[in-house]
Recover the amino acids of this structure.
């Protein structure tokens, strides 16, 4: 089976991870953490979200974080934006790239964004246009691409249709979110078999949560199908506030371990990631949820 | 990709799981736990080990456990035996099937069994002959088939040579143990590509530990290559006393989740497994290490 030689890991911990942490993390701690992530060799970090603070109080300091981090050359610092107002604030913070987001499930979209899918598309279109006019690249997130906590399994054809609309708007990359972490590789295979005839492998990224422990198996299947970009969160942070019981993102260090052992290059240093993870453990005052951090803690004790 | 319709899960928690638990579990608790496992639909349970109690004090009550469990028709109750003396005791306990074991790594074999590989083979041959003379079927375990904590990566050809010796002795099935839980699917693929031209898929079982989080990905790759028997331990119990830092077996309930979601039959009930897992959590006084148990505990709280 042919695997890619090189993979890009997109770190979403500071956004997708922290937004689901009930414990408020200070701006200084976030900044110090992101600066450590920048030193690990990651080329892409989603640092925050410009969703209204009413919805995600944890990230109310979005602009401040974006302004206070140390920008390392070669690293893209991205932020999630829900609409024009969010985009304005992100641009004021001099974001490198913005992400727009919606769901493949009508119910999940309604609960998450408070709009129908049909009403969401024009809002995103405006954001994409404005962002591009401001010289920024735009990434799209499409969530619940395999299953929705309310609607159950999602038809790949529905994902394909919305993916087409998002591409039409001019996004540079589409991240397919397995938001609730229930997928198995045969479902990922079916989704990608539906999409790949119409979308380039380079246009698609996979975003797996790990509620059921299947995320790395799903990553492997995606690799075999030619996908070379994966989202993950250091320490497996994360979840979804609108998807009950959903656990965190696949842990960046677990993803890195598997890729490294398979001989796939990422440019990311495990030692530096573990260092950044240990820092966040000390901030949160609890162990992070990844196998590599577990191994590291055990070896430290022994 | 063609997957099998049906898979056999062999539960090794009472042996491979418990042998690495530092906290002594009472015979009554073991028996009650195994009886719960019997009710889950599992068709095979490795209930204990007849290794000398000096080495594994946790399983010193091997014969007692074997004698006190309630035997459910259709379930095979197996035990590990290291030598003739162990076999005698297992037969006194009326075991259904015995397992013999050795390592593909010379160093690991030496540390685990205190013999060279060459000196181990005749000992196992005696056990296999005697067991078969007593009308019992015999399973073989070959450990460190991908990597050894002392020697590093193990060549598939070495595994193949020893597997051939074990088959020659007359074992009915060979369980290939990824003892330290570091493998990734490309390594599993290479191992199976080496073995499958000479060994039937039905003769081989895969036994994954999950130290690095890759066990389910490795199971998936094995499924794709035609393997239909997998070892696992409820709650991800286990490890290896002679392999530093090695974590538990892949959790039975996580394996079951993945197989179920992929439409593969096992005959095992998730509810009953979770019930058995909850029971063991109460005995051990700590949470068990599986995603399904985590989800279950979360939902209970919510």
């Amino acid at each position: 089976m042919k695997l890619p030689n090189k993979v890009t890991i997109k770190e979403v911990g500071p956004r997708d991870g922290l937004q689901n942490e009930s414990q408020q993390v200070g701006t200084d701690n976030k900044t110090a953490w992101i600066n450590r992530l920048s030193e690990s060799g990651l080329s892409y970090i989603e640092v925050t979200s410009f969703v209204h603070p009413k919805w995600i109080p944890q990230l109310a300091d979005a602009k401040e974080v974006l302004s206070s981090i140390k920008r390392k050359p070669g690293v893209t610092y991205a932020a999630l934006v829900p609409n024009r107002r969010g985009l304005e604030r992100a641009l004021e913070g001099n974001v490198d790239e913005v992400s727009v987001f919606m769901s493949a499930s009508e119910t999940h979209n309604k609960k998450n964004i408070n709009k129908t899918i049909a009403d969401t598309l024009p809002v995103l279109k405006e954001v994409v246009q404005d962002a591009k006019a401001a010289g920024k690249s735009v990434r799209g997130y499409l969530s619940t691409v395999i299953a929705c906590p309310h609607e159950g399994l999602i038809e790949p054809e529905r994902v394909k249709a919305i993916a087409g609309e998002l591409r039409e708007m001019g996004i540079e990359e589409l991240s397919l979110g397995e938001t609730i972490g229930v997928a198995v590789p045969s479902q990922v295979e079916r989704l990608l078999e539906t999409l790949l005839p119409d979308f380039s492998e380079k246009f698609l990224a996979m975003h797996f949560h790990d509620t059921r422990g299947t995320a790395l198996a799903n990553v492997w299947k995606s690799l075999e199908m030619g996908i070379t970009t994966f989202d993950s969160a250091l320490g497996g942070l994360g979840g979804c506030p609108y998807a009950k019981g959903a656990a965190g993102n696949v842990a960046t260090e677990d993803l890195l371990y598997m890729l490294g052992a398979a001989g796939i290059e990422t440019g990311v240093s495990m030692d530096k990631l573990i260092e950044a993870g240990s820092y966040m453990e000390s901030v949160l005052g609890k162990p992070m949820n990844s196998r590599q951090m577990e191994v590291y803690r055990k070896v430290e004790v022994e």
